[in-house]
Every structure is written in structure tokens, then in C-alpha cells.
Design a protein that fits this description.
- The chain contains six helices and nine strands.
- 56% of the residues lie in helices and 18% in strands.
- S-adenosylmethionine (SAM) binds next to helix 3.
- Residues 127-129, 153-157, 178-180, 183, 237-238, 240 line the site of S-adenosylmethionine.
- The chain crosses the membrane at residues 6-29.
- Keywords: Membrane, Transmembrane, Transmembrane helix.
- It holds the Pfam family Methyltransf_24.
Length: 306
């Protein structure tokens, strides 16, 4: 090959190489441009997806918070209503308690006015007769002027009866049956303190078995009332429930043959379950009886023969 032909060949080769370089460079640039574009598109897509998912999260949280707030508000409202109702019922209980206390004070003042004691009356309420029942008892004595009163269970009631009998001015007297020697001694002291020795007697009568209705009841030894022929008024306020079921039931069957035909019997604590049952038994065993339930702190039953 001649020198010219070599030069032409080399020149052509250079041109081809240059062309290839140019085409290759162009392709490389296009490829890198496309890759950058695709990265860009991917990145934008990811950002969009992230933004969408964050927006969904925010929406969900907002819904949850709204739900929680609504349920919190409902609970708070329900609690407020409940505590309002509680406060209302506490207010009612306090108001009823105040009324009860006021009523007992009124009755106590009536007792002082009617009885004019020379010394303070013994403590009332709780185990003792409440003033409202005491007022009914005293009124019964002032109106009925009984000659003989027998009471089952001594205490403040013995003093009220003694004072009322003295107020009546006749020769009436009360015999208080007491099974417990300590309480018998305590009531005797009260009798002395109020100067009622002539009208009130406390008879210690231990509880002993009495056979009634085909079973045994613990009741006051009946020898304590042996010498009494006729009883005008009976107050049943003992023995205490702690001595046995239907502890006060024997009072009427045991004293019925001495109870004057126009006599009266008062049963305290008449609202208790035991006393409700006793009332039914008395009606069945000793009827026909007229029974008036007097609304009082513990319930008082006024019993007479029909
Ligand atoms: C309901 S209480 C008789 C209360 C009495 N009628 C009066 O007005 O005070 C019945 C019996 O419980 C007993 N008793 C009285 N006070 C008591 C007390 N504080 N604790 C336990 N027993 C008591 C006595 O034996 C009483 O005869």
C-alpha cells in the first residue's frame, strides 16, 4: 500500500473512531440523563406516597382523638350526672335526718312540758324508747289513767311512765320487768334520782323457758307478775332481740289473762321484721285485736281488744 493510501486509511479510521466516540459519548450522556430523570421521578413518587401516608396517619389520629374526646366527654357527663345524683341523695338523707332529729326534739320538749320532771330525763333513743314513742305512751297514760302498768324492759320508759302516773295523781303504779341485773340496778337508780320510788318498781325477772306454740321461748320469769290481778297498760320493749328470735312474742300470751278487757298494749320497734311477725302471731293466737300502727322513729303498735 502506498503512503497516501495509509494516510487515507488512518484518516478514515480516526474519523470512524471520533464518530464512535461522539456517538458513545452521546449515548452515555442520554443514559445518564434518563437515569437521573428516572431517579427524580422515583424520588417524587416516594415523596408523594410519603405525603399521602402521613396525611392518612394524621386523619386517622384526628378521628381517634375525636372519638376519645367524644367518649371522654360522654364519660365525664355520665360521671357528673352520677355524682350529682349522689349529692342529691346525700342531701336528701341529711335533710331527712335533720327532720327526724327536729321531730324527736319537739317530742322531747313536749315530754318535759307534760311531765315537769324535777331532774333531767334519762337518755332516750338508741336502746331506749325514742321521744316520739314516749310522747304516745305518756299521752295514753294521761288520757287513760291506768291503775297498773307492766312494762317488759326497763329504762327511760320506766321514768316516763312513773312521771305520767304521778302527773295523773291517782294511785297508779308501774312494774318494770328487767332480766338483766345491771340494767335493773341502773333503772332503780334513775327511779330514785327522779323521786319516783312510790310509783315505779323494777322487778328483776331473769329470762326462763316458756312453752308456747309448741316451742320454747326465753321470757321473763312470770313469778314477777304473780301478785297482779289486772293490767291496764302493757308496754312491750324487751327482752332485746339478742336474746332470741321472736323474743317479745310471749308478752301477750303470757299476760293475756291479766290484761284488762279495755286495756291497751304498746309494742315498740314495731317496724322490725321480728315484730311484724309477732303482730301476725298475736292476731292468730289472741285475737280479735284492733291494731294501730303509729308512725314513729322505730314504729309503735297500739293494740286493744275488739
Ligand atoms: C329496748 S331495751 C328497753 C329500753 C327501755 N324500755 C327504755 O326505754 O330505756 C330492752 C332491754 O335491753 C337492755 N338494754 C338496755 N339498754 C341497753 C344498752 N345500752 N345496751 C345493751 N342492752 C341494753 C335491757 O335489759 C333492756 O331491758
Amino acid at each position: 500500500m502506498s503512503g497516501t493510501a495509509w494516510l487515507v486509511t488512518i484518516g478514515l479510521l480516526q474519523i470512524v473512531l471520533l464518530g464512535a466516540l461522539i456517538v458513545g459519548g452521546g449515548l452515555l450522556w442520554r443514559w445518564s440523563e434518563r437515569a437521573a430523570h428516572e431517579r427524580d421521578v422515583r424520588a417524587r413518587k416516594e415523596r408523594r406516597e410519603l405525603a399521602t401516608s402521613m396525611a392518612e396517619d394524621r386523619r386517622e389520629w384526628k378521628q381517634r382523638m375525636n372519638r376519645a374526646a367524644a367518649s371522654g366527654a360522654r364519660t365525664a357527663l355520665a360521671e357528673a350526672r352520677e355524682s350529682d345524683a349522689r349529692a342529691g341523695s346525700v342531701r336528701d338523707i341529711v335533710r331527712r335526718g335533720e327532720l327526724r332529729n327536729y321531730h324527736q326534739l319537739e317530742a322531747l320538749m313536749a315530754l318535759y312540758t307534760l311531765l315537769q320532771p324535777t331532774a333531767p330525763l334519762p337518755q332516750m333513743r338508741r336502746y331506749a324508747l325514742s321521744p316520739d314513742a314516749g310522747w304516745v305512751l305518756v299521752d295514753e297514760i294521761l288520757q287513760g289513767e291506768p291503775k297498773i302498768v307492766v312494762e317488759c324492759g326497763s329504762g327511760a320508759s320506766t321514768i316516763l311512765i312513773g312521771l305520767a302516773l304521778r302527773q295523773v295523781g291517782s294511785d297508779g303504779r308501774v312494774i318494770a320487768l328487767e332480766h338483766d341485773p345491771t340494767f335493773a340496778a341502773r333503772t332503780r337508780e334513775e327511779v330514785e334520782r327522779l323521786g319516783l320510788g312510790e310509783v315505779a318498781e323494777v322487778a328483776h325477772a331473769p329470762l326462763s323457758p316458756q312453752w308456747l306454740r309448741g316451742r320454747s321461748f326465753e321470757w321473763y320469769d312470770p313469778r314477777a307478775v304473780e301478785g297482779i290481778e289486772s293490767i291496764d297498760l302493757i308496754l312491750v320493749d324487751g327482752p332485746p332481740r339478742s336474746t332470741g328470735e321472736l323474743a317479745r312474742y310471749p308478752a301477750l300470751p303470757m299476760l293475756a289473762d291479766k290484761w284488762a278487757l279495755d286495756g291497751t298494749l304498746l309494742l315498740d320497734d314495731a317496724d322490725r321484721e321480728d315484730e311484724t311477725r309477732i303482730r301476725e302471731l298475736w292476731e292468730a293466737d289472741c285475737g280479735p285485736l284492733a291494731m294501730d300502727h303509729v308512725r314513729s322513729e322505730k314504729g309503735l303498735l297500739v293494740v286493744r281488744r275488739r
